[in-house]
Every structure is written in C-alpha cells, then in structure tokens.
Amino acid sequence: MFKNRPQPPRSIQPDPYRLLEQFRRRHPPQRLELDGAKWTYWDLGRGAQTLVFLHGMAGSGDVWFQQLLRFARHYRVVAPTYPPLEPLDRLVAGVWALLDHLDVDKAQFVGSSLGGLVVQYMASSHPERVERAVFSNTFPPGHPEIRRTRWLMPLARGLPTRVLFGLMKRSLRLNRAALEAGDRLLQAYLLDQYDGGMTRAQLLARAACVLGDFELEPPTMPHAIIESLDEPLLSRNVRSDLKRLYPRAWVHTFRKGGHFPYLTQAEEYNRVLMTFLDASYV
Q1: Confidence (pLDDT) at 235
Q2: Burial code of 43-76, b = ≥16 C-beta within 10 A, e = fewer?
Q3: Is residue 80 within 8 Å of 110, Cβ to Cβ?
Q4: Residue 181 has pLDDT above 80, yes or no
Q5: pLDDT of residue 271
Q6: What backbone torsions phi and psi does residue 124 show, to the nearest 5 degrees?
Q7: What is the greatest pairwise CA distance in the chain?
Q8: Rounded Cα distance, 229 and 253, in Å
Q9: CATH among 1.10.10.10, 1.10.260.40, 3.40.50.970, 3.40.50.1820 for 16-278
C-alpha cells in the first residue's frame, strides 16, 4: 500500500495515487534469482515487440506504471527492479541475464537517469540486441560533474541506514511547498521508497553505478534524448554534453517535467514516446 500518500488536489482526475495502488494490487511483481541476485520485475502485454523500461537510482520497476499500462496494449513490456549489483558492467550483465531468461533477444529500451546510462551501455556494447534506445533525463558516462560526487560515496557508506534515508526524506520534504499535482505523486512515491521500498544495499550499489564510465561506440539504431528545461539534478552543461555526444538523436525537451517527467507528466511523456517509437526516423 502507498504509505506516504498525501491528499491529492480535487483537480486530479483520475487520482494517480489510486491508480498506482490498483496497479500494485492487480500486477504484483514476479521474482527470480539469477547468479545469486534476487530480481523483481513486471512482464505485461503480449505484443510482438518488447519494450524494456529501466528506472533510475531511486525507484523500482513500478515507477513506470503509467507507461506499463499504456504500452502493454501494443507491446510486451518489461520493467525490472535492480538488485544491489555493482559496478555498472555487472548491473548491465544482470539485465541481459534477466532478458535472456525471459527469452527476449531484441528489444526497444527506455531508461531514465541511471537507467539511461544503462541503456547507453547496452546500445554501445550489444547494438544487435537494441532496436531503439531512449536516453531520458540522463547524462554521458563519466561526465566530470557526475564524477565530482565521488566523495559522497565513502560518507554514504559510513552512515547508519536510518540516518542515510532520513537525510534523503528531509531533502525531499524541504521542497514540499513547491510541489504541484504530479509532483505530489512523485513525492509520495519517493518517500515510499525511502521508507522500505528500497534497501540500503540497493541505494549504495546504484549510487556506485552512476559513477560508471565506459568507451562508447556510436549508436547504430534509432535513438532519442528526452530532457526537461527545469531539470533539478542535471545541469544545462550536462544536458548539452549529452546532446553533443549523440548529435543524430531525436530530441524532445519538456518545458516543465523535472527529473521524472514519465511520472509527473505521464500523458505527455507517453505521447512523446509513442511518437518516437512509431517514427520512421533513422
């Protein structure tokens, strides 16, 4: 159940909190252990094509619930929750192992933040398995601004679990007054993650993967960049460098979407994603 649910404004129709609760009741995750790693994942729809959604550092596979419900009408949709795997190449290998278990040879991939970094790695290392790639609200591998946060890792590893998640909840609540309707869904979702939805081991492993670096091969498949002008976590410089790294990318910029437009602006995000997936762009 959605423990940290704030009261939504009456203008929200339908209530997104209720929709998430319904999704969790009707579509509980499947579970699988591979090479000692315990995966949970959602596998919905019966389409001929597979669409894989990869979440960021704070979240689980069901953070994509509004996309899973929409795209399961036409695709097989898969959304895993990462177990505590690090470094980045080990996490990527784990995603491939899960897809192999599910008999997914080729797929289209959508990744946000850390998930966007994972998709970049997958598209570069195994382009024959990636039909289309979406890099959403993410960053180039090994970017200097991301690498400068390395000093936080020893500090985070040394903090007690209660203090670590307490600091994350406090940071989120400091911005409460500025949150709008969709953002309140985001706030409730993240607070749920910080109150037991995500383990300490998962958080630290994902933070380590964010720092991962690798040599990129130019993408050979259609690829897109989704970003937000009001992105709170990635600077304009980081976003510009990502577009320079992928000069042939199809780009969509949300005027207002923050770091989680797929959660806070779900209907528009779904339209944008469908436009790219249906495009004859090469």
Answers
A1: 96
A2: bbbeeebbbbbbbbbbbbbbbbbbbbbbbbebbb
A3: no
A4: no
A5: 97
A6: -80, -40
A7: 51
A8: 7
A9: 3.40.50.1820
Give the mean model confidence (pLDDT) for residues 198-206. 97
**Nearest CA-CA partner of 56 in 275, 231, 177:** 231
Quickly state the pLDDT bin for 9 (edges 50, 70, 90): very low
Residue-wise pLDDT for 136-160, tens only, equals 999 999 999 999 999 989 999 999 9
pLDDT at 19 over 90: no
Using CA atoms, how far apart are residues 42 and 118, in angstroms rounded to an integer? 18
pLDDT computed for residue 178 by the predictor: 45
Three-state SS letters, the chain:
CCCCCCCCCCCCCCCHHHHHHHHHHHCCCEEEEECCEEEEEEEECCCCCEEEEECCCCCCHHHHHHHHHHHCCCCEEEEEECCCCCCHHHHHHHHHHHHHHCCCCCEEEEEECHHHHHHHHHHHHCHHHEEEEEEECCCCCCCHHHHHHHHHHHHHHHCCHHHHHHHHHHHHHHCHHHCCHHHHHHHHHHHHHHHHHCCHHHHHHHHHHHCCCCCCCCCCCCEEEEEECCCCCCCHHHHHHHHHHCCCCEEEEECCCCCCHHHHCHHHHHHHHHHHHHCCCC
CA distance 95 to 165: 26
Identify the CA nearest to 274 among candidates 134, 131, 137. 134
* Residue ranges of domains in the chain: 16-278
